């Protein structure tokens, strides 16, 4: 006898983990179970009564089991409305009120190095997405994600409260999952000429970059990246703002580039502390001890750091928190910070860094303590432009001083000074171009960012370093692209810089070499096409 009552569930899953428990819970609530193929066998083996889908249509699976559920009896049961129940009765189709389906692992197949068109097609699910979308349109209970099974059972036991919204939320999630699935396929078969990004709102911001830009929020995509923004837990303070999230994303670029370049060149990642304002580093220091890293970072540009954000790859405890708030401050004054991101905070640090109205956000992520060269963000980067979006690979180039294309003009500097070049490179190549970066004693002493001309960036970085009281003599400099004329190099030489790392590709490269030879400073040269460090256009 075909059941028209709303107690029928269709279960058809690729991954059988947990499906027996879910089916057993439904049976205890009085539900009939429809299934087919491997899922039906798994349930029968567990002594759970199952009605085979093929008994509805009277047709066996065909085409090597490719067509099983693509029949009117299934989709009629999922798509029908309350007004069409009488028609269902005449047709002797069951009303299906719940569909639990997952999808063939298409993404896993696509990312395999030896994936072919044929292998991807074979792993492309048709029946699953179709049932999901039919269930979503019919506002049935659509269960796609494993975690939702327990939630559904609990909801059913409570008497299905707020049923419309509950079903709609599941339907929306289901449509998102199918959309992502189809996008994987379109991207693969078009060889990337069709692309896009789909996200789910993770956090709602009070407003966007400016107060009048509302609504705004953080949307997250399907990722296993431990450093993705949704994996940072807010442990103190108010919800991060749009600008906080932008700064966090940029700081992760700088942090992972410092860690990556030190890992590649020295196989050692010390304590790293970064301070930013408007995304660009205004204080960075690398040291063996957390306290030294924090003090060096603060000394970089204390004025710019006011109201800024800090990131560290080490825990923030009482001593570290006290440095952030008190060190190098006038008596009785506390440093104002907008946020601190670290692997963890203890209770004293949370209390010490707290501001009124939660204006200092503390976010922790243990993955910050486990950085290496593999920590770079390797996902494709998208950027909205009017009428569409731009797409490019991520910033994954890492400077390697063993690169055979590296040209050293003058004397090779000491290992310690080369470390400072590496740090300067990592900071400058993740700052808004054009950028000139100065580092001394493994500490950022000046960052001249976002200038339209290179000599302007040089003059800016020198003036900012001097404004903060730094002695530039003996520092190293990084330029994110070649010097079109030797005038910028001369300004650095006159300020006391002893080594410069930059790219070559200008018609005046020889003039740059000559001015460095004459001043007896070291010039590290790499091809611009290979290692230009533009960022943030």
Pick out its properties:
21 strands; single chain; about 525 residues
What would your notes on this structure say?
With 537 residues, the protein is of the alpha/beta class. The protein has 20 helices and 21 strands. The strands form 5 sheets. A 6-stranded mixed β-sheet has the order 8-13-12-11-9-10, with helices on both faces. It is elongated and about 95 Å long.
Unreliable parts: none
Radius of gyration: 30 Å
Q: What's the β-strand tally?
A: 21
Helix fraction, binned, reads 25-40%
Q: Quickly count the helices.
A: 20
Question: Whole-number average pLDDT?
Answer: 94
Could you say which overall geometry the principal axes of the C-alpha atoms support? elongated
Sheet with the most strands: spatial strand order: 8-13-12-11-9-10
Record the SSE blueprint.
Elements: E1 8-12, H1 19-28, E2 32-35, H2 37-45, E3 51-52, H3 54-57, H4 72-79, H5 85-91, E4 98-101, H6 106-110, H7 117-122, H8 127-137, E5 141-143, H9 148-157, H10 163-189, E6 200-205, E7 216-220, E8 233-236, H11 242-266, E9 271-277, E10 280-287, H12 290-300, H13 302-305, E11 308-312, H14 318-326, E12 337-342, H15 347-353, E13 361-364, E14 381-385, E15 388-392, E16 407-409, H16 415-428, E17 436-440, E18 443-448, H17 454-467, E19 476-479, H18 487-495, E20 499-504, H19 509-519, E21 522-527, H20 528-531
Parallel strand pairs: 1-2, 1-4, 2-3, 4-5, 11-12, 12-13, 19-20, 20-21
Antiparallel strand pairs: 6-7, 8-13, 9-10, 9-11, 14-15, 16-21, 17-18, 17-19
